[in-house]
Amino acid sequence: MTITGPKKELLDLTKHQGQITIDDAVEKMDLAKTTVREHFTQLEKDEYIERSYERSGRGRPSLRFQLTKKGNGLYPSYEPEMMREFIRYLQTEGEHRILEVFFQKFWDRRYEKLKLMLEEENVKSEKDKARVTRQMLDEEGFMAEYGHDQDSGKLMMKECNCPFREIIKVTKLPCKLEKEFYQRVFGKEVERTSYIADGDFACTYCID
Question: Where is the HTH deoR-type domain (predicted)?
Answer without folding.
Answer: 8-53
